[in-house]
Amino acid sequence: MIIHSYDYKNHDKYRASFNRLSKLVFGIDFESWYQKGAWGERYICHSIVEDDQIIANVSVSKMDLLINGESKRAIQIGTVMTHPEHRGKGLSRQLMEYVLETYEGTCDLLFLFANSTVLEFYPKFGFTVLPEHQFYLNLAVQPAGEPTLLEKLDVLKEEHWDLIKQMLSSRRPISKHVGVTNSEGLFQFYALNIFHECLYYSRTDDAIIVFEHEGDLLHLYEVISDKQVNMETLVSRITTKRTKKVRFHFRPDQLLNKAYVEPYGENEDVLFIRPLSDLGKLPVFCIPTLAHA
């Protein structure tokens, strides 16, 4: 068994094997992301190979976190997976040790998200839990009339995909207190694989908006623009007469005096960070959902 630590995305055999494992473990496929040219240099797989097959993997996503107005070079660890037939052999531990040794001196912090089944694993590597919060806004007054018409984006249309790429290239962070930059590839992955039915362009706001309705709850996942968008006005454009509450999947700086905040629930993934000591005093926050690797 060997660790393939180079960027093998252009190696058809290894990429296909990686995709088979990711579909088996997570039910996700990276091939459309690759074919669209969105799998860039900032997402790197570190994998253990046996008999020319990927049997375990830990990936890193390079990005920058904007924390209280200060940019931090960050590495997000993700796609941690082992083939079921090879679990219990310490392969994830071996890869985590390799990744930490390789990247720790190249960034200001490392972070990751973990589900409830592996919460005991990451503290062994010096990671500390950092609590996140949910942000909600109750709508006291329903919008009058119909919502503003938005253009629904189709990632399969070349002109729409080009618009997404163009706007990502000049976007500003959604929060100046806890925001993310240089993470275009992650947004494109979500656009292609998860939120392709939730993408809209507002010409009035000159912004791409990612949102969906769940009964009377509006989930606002992301706003992509190169300028500061009036969040309260934008919300009024996308709510309907049925909407009673909005959940922001990012820290809505402009609306904190009107929003209410709750701790993340037990079913939410847990944020781990290493090191914690250099971050200073953090406000209530959440890492934007569409920046999770």
Q: What is the helix tally?
A: 6
- Count of structural domains: 2
Q: Summarize the amount of helix as a percent range.
A: 10-25%
Q: How far is it from the N-terminal to the C-terminal residue, by CA?
A: 26 Å
Report what the structure shows.
This protein is α+β, with helices and mostly antiparallel strands and 293 residues long. It folds into two domains: 2-131 and 264-285, Aminopeptidase (3-Layer(aba) Sandwich), CATH 3.40.630; 135-263, Aminopeptidase, CATH 3.40.630. 22% of the residues lie in helices and 31% in strands. The protein has six helices and 15 strands. Strands 1, 2, 3, 4, 5, 6, 9 and 15 form an eight-stranded mixed sheet that branches. Helix 6 links the parallel strand 12 (217-224) and strand 13. The radius of gyration is 20 Å and the shape is globular. The chain starts with a strand and ends in a 19-residue tail after the last strand. The model has no long low-confidence stretch (mean pLDDT 92).
Q: What is the gist of this entry?
A:
The chain has helices at about 10-25, 30-35, 90-105, 160-170, 185-195, 230-240; strands at about 1-5, 45-50, 55-65, 70-80, 110-115, 130, 135-140, 150, 180, 200, 205-215, 215-225, 245-250, 260-265, 270-275. The chain is of the alpha+beta class. The protein is globular and about 60 Å long.
Layout of helices and strands, plus pairs?
Blueprint: E1 2-4, H1 12-26, H2 31-35, E2 43-50, E3 53-67, E4 70-82, H3 91-103, E5 109-114, E6 128-129, E7 133-138, E8 151-152, H4 158-169, E9 178-181, H5 184-193, E10 199-202, E11 207-214, E12 217-224, H6 231-238, E13 245-248, E14 260-263, E15 270-274
